[in-house]
Amino acid sequence: xxxxxxxxxxxLLLAAACPRVYAVGTHASCAILMDAESGRVLYxxxxxxxxxxxxxxxxxxxxxxxxxxxxxxEVVTIKGEWLGSEGSSIYLKVGEEITLRGLLYGLLLQSGNxxxxxxxxxxxxxxxxxxxxxxxxxxxxxxRDSSFANPSGLNDDNHYSTAYDMALxxxxxxxxxxxxxxxxxxxxxVGTRTFxxxxxxxxxxxxxxxxxxxxxxxxxxxxxxxxxxxxxxxICVTLNDGNDWNDHCKLLDYGFEVFSxxxxxxxxxxxxxxxxxxxxxxxxxxxxxxxxxxxLREEETLTMDVELAPSVRAPxxxxxxxxxxxxxKDGEIVAQVLLAAQSGAGADVxxxxxxxKRLWNVA
Length: 363
Description:
The chain folds into two domains: 30-258, 3-Layer(aba) Sandwich (Beta-lactamase); 264-341, Peptidoglycan synthesis regulatory factor (PBP3), Domain 2 (Sandwich). The chain is 30% helix and 29% strand. The protein has helices at residues 2-17, 58-68, 100-108, 113-124, 127-140, 163-175, 177-183, 201-204, 244-258, 355-362; strands at residues 30-35, 41-45, 75-77, 97-99, 187-190, 193-196, 208-216, 220-229, 232-239, 260-265, 270-277, 283-288, 292-296, 303-308, 311-313, 321-329, 332-341. It starts with a helix and ends with a helix. The model is unreliable at 1-21 (pLDDT under 50).
């Protein structure tokens, strides 16, 4: 009995001294779990392998349309040449009038391919013109291994992306309040139609905020999801995953449990001061321009460096840039924030500002 007690004590000590080991996996050909705020990859499997992405394409379609639109409540009159796309549909009719916002709900909730074509042609004048905008936006987002050939996600040799690139797209969609709000909508009635979101995670996973499902026989099941918990947002992408609902739940649980968000700084936090030249005010406080967080395992730590300008010359306004703070993990910068002047400063009128004034004073 004494030996057993000693053995249990040793095992408890070892458990306390060693970090927990987590095993997580999926049924997907490609999968990624990413922290939305920082972009840190928390889990990966073939994340840069190009694959068909089916209707998850519509996230980019929605993002481009919202960014290009001047008025989402503008009425769109449906034209015959926009109709006839194969696959899922909201059954638009020639001559029907519907707002662009209504089409976006039909696109992201009901996954209507006819809605995708109507949005594309209304926004850019043609499908080809809209696809050009899609590829241009993808490049801006850093989606280096992606190519888009249509706004709906129908199979095409020139239409593909990667789990990593789709996670980058999801980050951009979460930052766009309109797209994020539509993705998180469970159901809505637009005119005579009621759209119900195909994303079952909105009902099955606490904190889920969208984003988009997809399927073709050739692509398999594709899914982009996002969830929030305790101020942290995670993005999950799986491509060709026959068990995607469960896999996303497991990956999201893993991320929230293992990589909790650490607050690195709050907005307005003073991290130093900078000398002021040409003013009666000798120094100005350098404050953080925004709050910053980063996901870390329990045993992980970061180092912080504050880089300030040697001085700043008046006049300047509140919020003028005066430096930055950076956080490093294993020597690599993983987070940073701009530092701004906490208050403005006017120029000292008694100090000559240039040689013309100095010459005038001497004269």
